[in-house]
Specification:
alpha/beta, 2 domains, Lyase 2-enoyl-coa Hydratase, Chain  A, domain 2, 2-enoyl-CoA Hydratase, Chain A, domain 1, globular, two-stranded parallel ribbon
Length: 267
């Protein structure tokens, strides 16, 4: 572990804080990428975890990649040949979307400041995005003469639509929170001091529901993005059979009929 992540837990909610404020939480090394990916995989295996919040320490959410590393061909952009750089990406930053985006646990990005390049793509890997009024967003790879190498070309169009994704990717220009809200990049914009409370409130509203049903619902929504309706309906039927067989489903129905608060066990 590199200490890139600060991990805190409050009941069923885990908060992951990118903890390199001196570097504006830029992602610099394969070890940092592995720490994020390994943490996400471990949390996904933990049935007690119902929501994960991702945020940044200091003034930035994540400034993307390390420009000095790009210049010196070190870290996640290291290599003396095209083949070596390709493997650096595959074994480094690309591990994060494969772990974070594919989590069954719901994730909330609490975007406290600039989310630039890989930082914006990191936010797009999360399910829900809440922004501080001090946030800024840019798909800025073109500004440094490279392409989105971490899945941004897949993620951003699914969040904001192809036209807006192309505008952001081809200009590299930054947008403010109001523009991000208007194009659906974020679902809420709040004052800086209200950001984490808003994310925790959202997490609590999710975590109160039956956790297996929540995870299955998230997976259905993820898979729906690249499935035919008929295929998704088959998957929905199978998932519904699983959900109907849980104790939490019975508890949810019983508690509604008995007009009392439910007690979900995750079983």
């Amino acid at each position: 572990m590199t200490g890139f992540l600060n991990i805190s837990r409050d009941g069923h909610v885990v908060t992951l804080t990118l903890n390199r404020p001196d570097k504006r939480n830029a992602i610099s090394s394969a070890e940092e990428c592995a720490e994020v990916a390994d943490t996400c995989r471990a949390l996904n295996r933990d049935d007690a975890v119902r929501v994960v919040i991702v945020t940044g320490a200091g003034s930035a959410f994540c400034a993307g990649g390390d420009l000095k590393g790009m210049r010196d061909k070190t870290g996640i952009t290291g290599g003396n040949s095209g083949a070596e750089i390709r493997e650096s990406y595959r074994r480094g930053i690309q591990m994060i979307p494969l772990a974070l985006y594919e989590m069954d646990v719901p994730t909330i990005a609490a975007i406290n400041g600039p989310a630039i390049g890989a930082g914006l793509d990191l936010a797009c890997m999360c399910d829900i995005r809440i922004a501080s009024e001090s946030a800024r967003f840019a798909e800025s790879f073109v500004k440094v003469g490279i392409v989105p190498g971490d899945g941004g070309a897949y993620l951003l169009p699914k969040v904001v639509g192809m036209s807006k994704a192309l505008e952001m990717s081809l200009t590299g220009d930054a947008i403010n929170p109001a523009e991000a809200l208007a194009c659906g990049l974020v679902s809420r914009v709040v004052a800086p001091d209200d950001l984490l409370p808003a994310a925790r409130d959202m997490a609590a509203r999710i975590a109160v529901n039956p956790p297996q049903a929540v995870r299955l619902t998230k997976r259905l929504l993820r898979e729906s993005q690249h499935m035919r309706l008929s295929t998704l309906l088959e998957m929905s039927a199978a998932y519904q059979a699983l959900a109907h067989g849980t104790r939490d489903h019975r508890e949810a129905v019983d508690s509604m009929l008995e007009k009392r608060a439910p007690q979900f066990e995750g079983r």
